[in-house]
Amino acid sequence: MKVLGVDPGLTRCGVGVVDGVAGRPLTMVGVGVVRTPADAEIAQRLVEIERGIDAWLDEYRPEYVAVERVFSQHNVRTVMGTAQASAVAMLCAARRGLPVALHTPSEVKAAVTGSGRADKAQVGAMVTRLLRLDAPPSPPTPPTPWPSPSATSGAPRGQPPPAGACRGPPRRLRHRPVRRHSPDGSPEGHPMIAFVSGPVAALAPDSAVVEVGGIGMAVQCTPDTLSALRVGQPAKLATSLVVREDSLTLYGFADDDERQTFELLQTASGVGPRLAQAMLAVHSPDTLRLAVSTGDEKTLTAVPGIGKKGAQKLLLELKDRLGEPVGSGRAGVGSAVTAGWRDQLHAALIGLGYATREADEAVAAVAPQAEAAVAEGGSPQVPQLLKAALQTLNRAR
Predict the structure, then answer these.
(1) Residues 209, 260: Cα–Cα separation, whole Å
(2) Strand 12-19 relative to strand 100-103, pairing
């Protein structure tokens, strides 16, 4: 699926084409800028933008067009010019019957980085990673202001050249080729840490340290994942590296399915790595897929930080992204970790370094909470029980 993205503007109208499908690596096909002279008449500049966008549509044949939604600024003149260029882009798409999606800058930032307030450097770093580029994408260096008369086939000096000839054809961006998968299933050459493997050096309530080649890798994990780890014992965690301007955070998962679900959840606007991890702490990947496919708001609102409106928005955005459930039948809330909750909770506390006596007391303290869940027809949620048990231990100390 090819998508033409348009960053509207009168002087510089940014354009780019991305190819790919949800859940798989994306490819940057082309990037460029449609430019118009600032001293030309508005009508002529809009004509040039129309011709430039049409040239991109002819060249790449996209299936969708995405345009940045114009937002209010103090400079009304700038807003008007951007709105006019945006309308031209939508008109070009509509004439070809192409669906158009409008996105605000904050929505784009949130989808790419997990934060609607990310700066340009953060967005550039994440785009480079997601598209597997060597450097942030940038359009080709523009030529001199306007070509000579001979270069424009007789166009008078100072006037724009014929459509499509003034700035050359759209540039195809060179990118790293997608390599075949390695034996463990991770794509070779993908700019991220696909997994970590080694003895567990330390455990904390929300993270683990895995020794890899003499280096301790701090990995953020859900309580369920942590409950299966033991200090000094070997472990292998699927991982996802989240890049920020001031930090690199590694998130760990029990398997590749959790890791892929974690990354797909972040394609929804407003979902960052923390919220995605919280969703996986409460629900298994299959439970989330089933909830999205059936429109189950209640399952999503069980996650701390997600209200009714947020759940409705997530159901809409994730509908065609997570895929269908792969398990046999409906999994309840936290179903992947509910069997034998006492043993699992006790093992998780021991793995975190607590003494057997302390673990026994903590399990007994949260037992009424688990029994209440069973009485209501539900199942005890080990991640929530572990959080409550840790609070009990902290108060005891």
Answers:
(1) 22
(2) unpaired
Q: Whole-prediction pTM value?
A: 0.44
Specify the length of the chain in residues: 397
Indicate the residue type of 156.
P
Question: What are the per-10-residue average pLDDT scores of the chain (397 residues)?
Answer: 92 92 78 92 93 94 90 63 90 93 83 74 82 79 42 42 44 39 39 82 90 90 88 93 80 92 89 90 88 88 86 87 65 43 76 77 86 76 78 69
